[in-house]
């Protein structure tokens, strides 16, 4: 795998609560230089990143209801609408873990479907031509889930129309594992993609996730990973 090839797997991530505007500017410039798939930042920095990256091949990704996923449906919808309006092209939603742990799969599917419908409406409104494409990812926080809960959550995401399922926020008790990535990919099949995130800090870890089915790697060590080749 070449440097350019692995760079396109990477969502270069800066989600620190202490990140400054100057750090974000430098972060985006590095992302442009490396041609990463996206930068993943907190919502307040979406307008800045969108302006810096508007003429590049790097997308702006942000997190919704992060990191707990417990803000409720309307809060998620409001955050998503604002992020799309501000220029985000990818949204990483944190799943409602209370519904997952209660095994309320029908209720979870209904909530996720509402989010996808809201994204479509906001995308049409934000684009002058209509039909702006927004990539949606559902963060499962797999460190808290059983294999059965991971599988059922993936099925709910698939039925609802999400583009990706994602392993972790990076703020939980554990990050991505190759086993969870493989399980998620086996569940969603070719119709969806898997993003591995949390604790991926070197080339070997990134390649292990990719070999087990990950199409994206969420990491703050993207430059280090690419330079390792």
Summarize the structure.
With 229 residues, the chain is α/β, with parallel strands linked by helices. It has helices at residues 3-7, 21-34, 46-52, 73-86, 97-101, 105-126, 147-160, 178-188, 203-211, 222-227, and strands at residues 10-14, 38-41, 59-64, 90-94, 135-139, 164-166, 193-197, 216-219.
Pick out the low-confidence regions. none
Q: Would you list the SSEs in sequence order as H and E?
A: HEHEHEHEHHEHEHEHEH
State the secondary-structure class. Answer: alpha/beta
The biggest beta sheet reads: 8 strands, parallel, barrel
Q: What is the helix tally?
A: 10
Basic shape: globular
Global Rg: 16 Å
- Mean pLDDT rating: 97
Proportion of strand residues: 15-25%
Q: What's the multimeric state?
A: single chain
Number of strands: 8
Give the strand line-up of the largest sheet. Answer: 1-2-3-4-5-6-7-8
Distance between the termini: 8 Å
Please bin the fraction of helical residues.
Answer: 40-55%
Summarize the structure in words:
- The relative contact order is 0.15.
- Helix content is 47%, strand content 16%.
- Helix 4 runs parallel beside helix 6 (105-126) and helix 7 (147-160) packs across helix 8 (178-188).
- The mean pLDDT is 97.
- The termini are close together.
- The protein has helices at 3-7, 21-34, 46-52, 73-86, 97-101, 105-126, 147-160, 178-188, 203-211, 222-227; strands spanning 10-14, 38-41, 59-64, 90-94, 135-139, 164-166, 193-197, 216-219.
- It is built from ten helices and eight strands.
- By secondary structure, the protein is α/β, with parallel strands linked by helices.
- Strands 1-2-3-4-5-6-7-8 form an eight-stranded parallel barrel, surrounded by six helices.
């Amino acid at each position: 795998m070449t440097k350019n090839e692995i760079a396109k797997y990477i969502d270069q991530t800066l989600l620190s609560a202490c990140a400054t505007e100057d750090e974000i500017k430098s972060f985006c410039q590095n992302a442009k230089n490396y041609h990463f798939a996206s930068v993943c930042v907190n919502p307040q920095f979406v307008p800045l990143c969108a302006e810096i990256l508007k003429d590049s091949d790097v997308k702006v990704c942000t997190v919704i209801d992060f990191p707990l996923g417990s803000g409720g449906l309307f809060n998620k919808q409001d955050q998503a609408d604002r992020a799309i309006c501000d220029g985000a092209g990818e949204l990483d939603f944190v799943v409602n873990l209370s519904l997952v742990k209660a095994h309320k799969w029908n209720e979870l599917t209904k909530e996720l479907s509402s989010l996808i419908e809201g994204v479509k409406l906001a995308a049409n409104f934000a684009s002058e031509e209509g039909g702006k494409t927004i990539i949606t990812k559902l963060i499962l926080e797999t460190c808290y889930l059983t294999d059965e809960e991971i599988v059922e959550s993936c099925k709910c995401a698939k039925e609802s129309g999400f583009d990706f399922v994602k392993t972790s926020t990076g703020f939980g008790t554990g990050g991505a594992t190759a086993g969870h990535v493989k399980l998620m990919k086996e569940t969603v099949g070719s119709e969806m993609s898997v993003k591995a995130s949390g604790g991926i800090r070197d080339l070997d870890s990134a390649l292990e996730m990719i070999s087990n089915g990950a199409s994206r790697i969420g990491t703050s060590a993207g430059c280090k990973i690419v330079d390792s080749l």
